[in-house]
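QA checklist item 7 of 12: single-chain prediction sanity check.
[x] sequence parsed
[x] length recorded as 274
[x] structure emitted
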Amino acid sequence: MNRLRVLMTGAAGYIAGQLLPAFRERYELQLIDVRRENRAGTVVEGVEVVDLLTDPAAAAFFAEVDVVVHCGYIRPGGDTPQAQYDAERRNIDMMQRVYQLAVDHGVRRVVAASTNQAAKWYEEPYFAGLRDRVSPEDYPRPNSLYGWAKAAYETLGFVYASGGLGAKLENIHIRIVVPREIDGAAFEHQPRHRYIRELAGYISERDLQQLFCKAIEVADITDEHGVPFQIVYGVSNNARTFWSITNARKVLGYAPQDDSEVRFAADIARLLGA
């Protein structure tokens, strides 16, 4: 059986670092980033240095690829609103370049690492006890420029998926929530709902790997209107839940194995037992 050919952008980044162990076992990989070292300063094997925004050579990496997994991200260079806006505009430009190069080279699908920040405002009524769940179908409501940019990735992706710019490009956007182990000690003096929010949004490394692999491999992602476009939330099978993964289960076949209630049971008893 031929292995799928997958191009990963941002391959030296944090999310890519969690995905690569599974990807290396399953796919024929092309890895690109603006650096070869991860956050710890360790060289990531196989990463080619290329800037998607400025390097004409970037286009060659899209040739003969089945799926692009886009994890690339440009961090803002300052903390002012203008600096953040300027950086996020560049991120949107990079996402557009990924879409267009994918179309130009006949790539079938783009799987993008998105974030719950695209709809983070909904956490306000959740904390207030006025809302129990948010789903991918809810209108995007970011409350930061980072979240706004991710919502822009998604809507721009729909343009490409709908065929508005030529051939339909399949799009899956994974809104990752809490892709890390939760340190209970960090919440000792925090309001209870802050810790509960982390438990609700937790996704284990193996569930994150499964979700991305399902997104890469599933045959049909068309919606009820025939558009190959999906937004899914990235959380584990948590007993405390706010972000709906109904369509991730139904469309992608996602079957998360972990539950934050079990994984962090000792901390939960200590911090929430009273």
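[x] summary fact logged: The longest strand covers residues 109-115.
[ ] second reviewer sign-off
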